[in-house]
Amino acid sequence: MIAHLKNLIRPIYFRLYHLFGYPGIVLHRATIRDIVQEYNQVYTYVVSKPAGLTFTAGQYVHLVAPRSIIDQNSVRHMSIASGPEEDCLRFTMDLSSNSKFKKKFATARVGDQIGIHSVKGHFSVDKKEAEDRALVFIAGGIGITPIRSIVSDLNTVPWRLIYAGKGYCYRDFWNHTGNLKKIKFTNRETVLEALQNVIDTSPKDSLYYLCGSSEFVATIRGFLANNRIEDHQVILENFGDI
Questions:
Q1: 3-state DSSP helix/strand/coil percent for the chain, to nearest 5?
Q2: How far is CA 204 from its chain centroid?
Q3: pLDDT (tens digit per residue) in 10-64
Q4: Which of 9, 34, 100, 140 is most buried, most CB within 10 Å of its CB?
């Protein structure tokens, strides 16, 4: 009975929230400039960068789907894949889940508007701390999104990337920046072998940035622990069941 009442009241609440201008949040509007198919059902949406929106490389936002108001079906946390200095924002997602949110992006077109609010997250590099440390990034699938943002913002800090997936995003970016020699493209079957090689050839005090699904993060974190990588050396972002 209570659950039924909540389902009845929730749409009314969100409609009123919209009519009153979303009190308590600053909602930015952005226009889709380009839609890039990375591989399979994975797409990147390149959007205009709203004036006044600032973020640190690696952070995420609340993303409002095209042609939507803020409600339980139209908003999701989404990592920003572009760097703070780029003149656009990039959001990458796998549409295969076919959720209501993903369906709205599946039918999106260039020129559509989306909403952005509430920049959050601590998956970022402290450049002062990293000055004398090597950085190792480990991405599983869509977990590459905040790592692309971070890498685009690094200059003199040495880094390496292990990227495990069924396909790979941002190939033009990796080629353009000349960083392919720093990247090992793998899959779920070969990622541990690649990681072992990186651990064996990296300084003992290296920092490990890990992002991906819950299962991927748990597997890699356990492997790092077995190789005596201390907890304070591991910075992770768990994307849940993506």
A1: 35, 30, 40
A2: 27
A3: 776 677 767 777 888 999 999 999 999 999 999 999 999 999 999 999 999 999 9
A4: 140
